[in-house]
Specification:
The longest helix is centred in the middle third of the chain and has 32 residues, at about 200-230. The chain has a six-stranded parallel β-sheet with strand order 3-2-1-4-5-6, with helices on both faces. The protein has helices spanning about 10-25, 35-40, 55-65, 100-110, 130-140, 155-160, 175-185, 185-190, 200-230, 235-240, 265-275, 285-305, 335-345, 360-365, 375-380, 390-395, 400, 420-425, and strands spanning about 5-10, 25-30, 65-70, 80-85, 115-120, 145, 165-170, 195, 315-320, 350-355, 370, 385, 410, 430. The protein has two domains: about 5-195, Rossmann fold (3-Layer(aba) Sandwich); about 200-435, NAD(P)-binding Rossmann-like Domain (Rossmann fold), CATH 3.40.50. With about 425 residues, it is an alpha/beta fold. Strand 10 (about 350-355), helix 14 and strand 11 (about 370) form a beta-alpha-beta unit. The structure holds uridine-5'-diphosphate-glucuronic acid. Uridine-5'-diphosphate-glucuronic acid binds near residues 213 and 263.
C-alpha cells in the first residue's frame, strides 16, 4: 500500500515539500501551529510568493490528496513524518534555536504508529539528529529517525524539490533508507544521485554546502574591494576566472552580498557549533566571510556619500528592490532593505520599490516609505540604488527615467545593469568593484 506522509511545519520548506510530495501521488497532511497559515493553505492560497508553487498547491488541494490542519493527532495515519520547521538564529547569540524542532518531535511522538519514520529536513547543528533519536527512544521507541537535508533555493523551490541535484539521507537503519527510497522513487528514477550517510554527515552536508556558497560570494566581493583599490573591474575578473571549470561562473556575481533566511544564519550557527565541538579554528574563516558580506552593504552607502554628500538629509534616494533576491517576497536579512534602513537612519528621504516584497518589508521597517510604481519611486530622486536584481529593473529606460529624476546618479549594487546604456543617457553610473 502507498505510504502516507505528514509534514510538520508548513512554512517555506514545509509547504513546498507537502505540495510536491502530494504531486508525486502520496496522501499528505501538513500540520502547523499557526491557524491562519493552515486556513490559507487549506484554501489553496500560498502565504508567500514562490513561482509555480501557487498553482501546484491549488491543484494538490483540489486533488484531495493534500490537507492541512493544526491538529497534531492527524499525523497518526502517516507512515513517514517530515520535520520542516524553522531553526532561526537565537536571540542571544550565533547558535541556531532548536525550540521548534524539539517541540515538533515531541508533539507528534504520542501519535506515531509502529514502524513509522521521522525524517528531519530542517537545517540543524550537527548532533541534533542523534539528540532527537534519544528523545524519541523514550517517547516513541517503536519509531525510527533519519535526516534528509533540503537544498532548495527560493524562486526555484518546486524544481529543486522535484528535480534535486542530489538526495542525501542520513540513516541508522537499512529500513529507514528503504522507506526513503520508496518516497523518492520517482525522483531516483531521474538518475538523481543518492547519497547514504550517517546522521552527523547528513547534517553537515547542508551547512557545508551553504558555507561554500557563502564563501564563493564573499570571495568575489573581496576581489571587488581589491579591484576598487587597484583600478580593476570585478565583472571582467569573475568572467575570466569562471571559465576554469574548477571555479565556474555561478555564485561569482559581485555586489551587495548574500542575505535571506539561510546563508547568514547557517554560517553563524555552524561557527557556534564548531566552537562547542572544539573545532572553532577550522571555521574561523567564516567570520571573515560574514564580515566581507556585511562590508558590501556599507560600501554602497560610502559610494552614495562620496557622490552626493556626507550629510544625506537633503536628498531623496530611490531604492529598487527590498527582497534578498529576485522572484521571492522574502525580506529576511535582506541586504537591500538593510541599506535602505541605514540611509533612512542617516536622514535621507528613502523610497523603496519592490515587485513582490513591499508588504513584508513594510512590516519589518514601517517607518520607510514604499511605492508600488517604479516611476513614482524614482521621481525627483537624487540617486537610484539598484539593490535586488528583478528582471524588470533591467528593462528600465535610462532616457525615460532620466527625465523624471532630479539628479542622474545610479548605483548598481548587483552588477546587472548595462553601464554603457546608462552612461550614454547621461547618468553617473557607479557599481561595486568597477572603477572606471
Ligand atoms: C540558499 C542555497 O542556495 C540553497 O541551496 C539552500 O537550500 C538554501 O539556501 C537553504 O538553506 O534553504 P536561498 O537562500 O534561496 O538558497 O538563496 P541563494 O540563491 O543561495 O542566494 C543567497 C543570497 O546570495 C542572495 O541574497 C543572493 O542575492 C546572493 N548572491 C547569490 C550573490 O550576492 N551573488 C551570487 O553570485 C549569488
Amino acid at each position: 500500500m502507498a505510504l502516507k506522509l505528514s509534514v510538520v511545519g508548513t512554512g517555506y520548506l514545509g509547504a513546498t515539500h507537502a505540495a510536491c510530495m502530494s504531486s508525486l501521488g502520496f496522501t499528505v497532511v501538513g500540520v502547523d501551529t499557526d491557524a491562519q497559515k493552515v486556513a490559507q493553505l487549506s484554501k489553496g492560497e500560498l502565504p508567500f510568493y514562490e513561482p509555480g508553487l501557487d498553482t501546484l498547491l491549488l491543484q494538490e488541494i483540489e486533488s484531495g490528496r493534500l490537507t492541512f490542519t493544526t491538529d497534531f493527532s492527524a499525523v497518526a495515519d502517516a507512515d513517514v513524518h517530515f520535520i520542516c520547521v524553522g531553526t532561526p538564529q537565537s536571540k542571544d547569540g550565533l547558535a541556531a534555536d532548536l525550540t521548534y524542532v524539539k517541540a515538533s518531535v515531541a508533539a507528534i511522538a504520542p501519535f506515531l504508529k509502529d514502524n513509522s519514520l521521522v525524517v528531519g529536513k530542517s537545517t540543524v547543528p550537527v548532533g541534533t539528529a542523534q539528540m532527537l533519536r534519544e528523545q524519541l527512544s523514550k517517547s516513541a521507541p517503536h519509531a525510527d529517525l533519519a535526516w534528509n537535508p533540503e537544498f532548495l533555493r527560493e524562486g526555484f523551490a518546486v524544481e529543486d524539490t522535484l528535480k534535486p541535484n542530489r538526495l542525501v539521507v542520513g540513516v541508522v537503519t537499512d529500513r529507514a533508507e528503504q522507506i526513503l527510497k520508496e518516497v523518492y522513487a520517482s525522483i531516483i528514477a531521474l538518475d538523481t544521485p543518492w547519497i547514504r550517510a550517517d546522521l552527523p554527515t547528513a547534517e553537515l552536508v547542508k551547512v557545508a554546502a551553504n558555507s561554500f556558497l557563502a564563501t564563493k560570494i564573499s570571495f568575489i566581493n573581496a576581489m571587488a574591494e581589491v579591484c576598487e583599490a587597484a583600478g580593476g573591474d570585478v565583472t571582467v575578473l569573475a568572467k575570466a576566472i569562471g571559465y576554469d571549470p574548477r571555479i565556474g561562473h555561478r555564485f561569482l556575481q559581485a555586489g551587495i552580498g548574500f542575505g535571506g533566511g539561510c546563508l547568514p544564519k547557517d554560517i553563524r550557527a555552524f561557527m557556534a557549533r564548531a566552537e562547542e565541538l572544539g573545532a572553532k579554528q577550522a571555521l574561523d574563516f567564516l567570520r571573515e566571510i560574514d564580515e566581507i558580506n556585511l562590508r558590501a552593504r556599507q560600501r554602497v552607502i560610502d559610494v552614495v556619500r562620496s557622490d552626493l554628500s556626507e550629510d544625506l538629509t537633503k536628498y531623496k534616494i530611490a531604492v529598487l528592490g527590498a527582497t534578498f533576491k529576485p522572484d521571492s517576497d522574502d525580506v529576511r536579512d535582506s541586504p537591500a532593505l538593510d541599506i535602505a534602513a541605514q540611509l533612512h537612519a542617516a536622514g535621507a528621504k528613502v523610497v523603496v520599490h519592490d515587485p513582490k516584497g513591499i508588504e513584508p518589508a513594510r512590516k519589518r521597517f514601517p517607518t520607510l516609505t514604499f511605492e508600488e510604481n517604479v516611476e513614482n519611486a524614482v521621481v525627483d530622486a537624487d540617486a537610484i540604488l539598484h539593490l535586488t536584481e528583478w528582471k524588470e529593473y533591467r528593462a528600465l529606460d535610462p532616457q525615460r527615467i532620466g527625465s523624471i529624476v532630479k539628479s542622474k546618479l545610479i548605483i548598481d549594487g548587483r552588477n546587472m545593469l548595462d553601464r554603457d546604456l546608462w552612461r550614454a543617457a547621461g547618468w553617473r553610473f557607479h557599481a561595486l568593484g568597477r572603477t572606471d
